[in-house]
Specification:
The protein is of the alpha/beta class. The protein is built from 7 helices and 8 strands. The strands form 2 sheets. The protein has a 6-stranded mixed sheet with strand order 2-1-3-4-8-7, sandwiched between helices. A two-stranded antiparallel ribbon has the order 5-6.
Length: 185
């Protein structure tokens, strides 16, 4: 996260998309840097859009994917200068994940950055989900949202392949067995 904010340091008036939902901590932090923040609670929207029946099978339905994208990712091209995706991408089945990443690629400006987290533990049936609240560039406050089953495991190669249309991907492994990923458009 510190790397993400160092990439946008010195700029003002940037538009940042936060996929962890609106929080006063994130709003205050981002606006104190002179930027604008747009929030979407992607996990809540996923539950509403795909939670009736088989959560992951529903994410393979072209009609449901299109309806979800039109509701949650109907952004103009090159609208954002940065994205805080957090761990939300881990809960997307491959067809929906591909469509969401394509939409994010269109929604961010060239040379902008996306920050994402991926669990490094391969054998976990369920992983903790959180609301992410920024205290400062080095400190995140995590509010538990319960345990969720990930759609798939993401090793470094899978993350690189996911963002292959982007300019670069940098990995940071934390003590918490998380991969912090900075992706440059």
């Amino acid at each position: 996260m510190e790397q993400f904010f160092s990439c946008i340091q010195g700029a003002t008036g940037l538009r940042i998309l936060d996929l962890s939902g609106a929080s006063q901590a994130n709003i205050s932090f981002i606006t104190s840097l002179g930027h604008k923040i747009y929030s979407e609670d992607l996990l809540q929207t996923l539950d509403l859009a795909f939670g009736d029946g088989d959560f992951f099978a529903n994410q393979s339905s072209p009609a449901q994917i299109e309806a979800f994208l039109n509701q949650s990712f109907a952004f103009p091209d090159q609208e954002f200068d940065g994205v805080l995706a957090w761990d939300a991408l881990e809960y997307l089945a491959p067809p929906l994940l591909k469509a969401v990443v394509e939409r994010l690629a269109k929604a961010v400006k060239p040379h902008s950055y996306l920050f994402a987290l991926f669990h490094a533990e391969e054998r976990m049936d369920a992983i903790p989900a959180y609301f992410y609240r920024i205290s400062d560039v080095r400190t995140l406050l995590l509010s538990p949202r319960g345990m969720r089953r990930p759609a798939q495991f993401f090793n470094n190669r899978a993350v690189e392949k996911l963002f292959e249309s982007f300019e670069s991907v940098k990995f940071f492994l934390t003590r918490d067995a998380l991969r912090e990923v900075i992706v440059k458009r």
